[in-house]
Specification:
single chain; mainly alpha; Jann2411-like fold; two-stranded antiparallel ribbon; 6 helices; 4 strands; binds zinc ion; ABATE_dom_sf; Zinc finger CGNR domain-containing protein; Znf_CGNR; ABATE
Length: 179
C-alpha cells in the first residue's frame, strides 16, 4: 500500500507532533523556541515570531492534540471549526521551486493561525483517506508522545526505539519474575 496523499501531509503531521510533544515536555516556552522549531521544520513565516505569536501558538496545541486523538468523524468537525475560526481561504501557489500546493491563508497571516490551518489541511487529507488512526500515542505508559505512524500496515506502537526497548525489557523482567 502507498500513502495516497501528498508527502507534505506527513511532514505537517510530524511537525505538529513535535510542537505538541515539545510543549508537553516543557521544551517550548518562548518566542525563541517557537522560531527555532519552525526553522528546524522549515515552517515559513515564523522568523519574526513574537511572544504573542508564541502564546497564540501554544493556545492551539490542545485543539491539535484533540484532533490527533479523536476518531475520524469527530476530526472532520474539528477541522471545519479551525477553518471557520481562522477564516481559511485555500488557494494554490507555486513558489521557491515548489510545485503547485495549497496554502490555507494569505501570506503574512499570524504564524499561530498558519500552523493551525496547515494542521487542519493535513487532517483533511487523512480524513478523506480514512487514515486518521496513523496519528498515535506512544505505547510506553510513561511516555505520552504523539507520533505519526508511516508504516505500511500501521503497526508501529512506540515513538522511538528507546521507548520500545524499555517496554520490551520491562515485559521481559515481568515474565522472568513470574516464572
Ligand atoms: Zn508554500
Ligand atoms: Zn515514547
Amino acid at each position: 500500500m502507498t500513502l495516497h496523499y501528498p508527502h507534505e501531509v506527513v511532514r505537517t503531521m510530524e511537525f505538529v507532533a513535535a510542537l505538541c510533544n515539545g510543549r508537553r515536555e516543557g521544551e517550548l516556552d518562548s518566542a525563541a523556541s517557537l522560531r527555532r522549531l519552525c526553522a528546524e521544520w522549515a515552517f515559513p513565516g515564523a522568523s519574526g515570531a513574537s511572544r504573542s505569536d508564541a502564546a497564540a501558538t501554544w493556545a492551539h496545541v490542545p485543539t491539535i492534540e484533540a484532533m490527533w486523538d479523536a476518531p475520524r468523524d469527530a476530526v472532520a468537525g474539528m477541522v471545519n471549526r479551525v477553518f471557520r475560526e481562522a477564516d481559511a481561504r485555500p488557494h494554490l501557489v507555486r513558489h521557491d521551486g515548489l510545485d503547485w500546493h495549497l496554502h490555507g491563508l494569505q501570506a503574512g497571516a499570524p504564524v499561530a493561525d498558519a500552523i493551525a490551518v496547515d494542521a487542519a489541511m493535513a487532517f483533511t487529507d487523512l480524513v478523506r483517506a480514512d487514515d486518521t488512526d496513523r496519528c498515535k500515542r506512544c505505547g510506553d505508559d510513561r511516555c505520552a508522545s504523539m507520533f505519526f505512524d508511516r508504516s505500511r500496515n500501521r503497526s508501529r506502537r512506540f515513538c522511538s526505539t528507546t521507548c520500545q526497548s524499555r517496554t520490551n525489557v520491562a515485559a521481559f523482567r515481568a515474565r522472568a519474575s513470574a516464572a
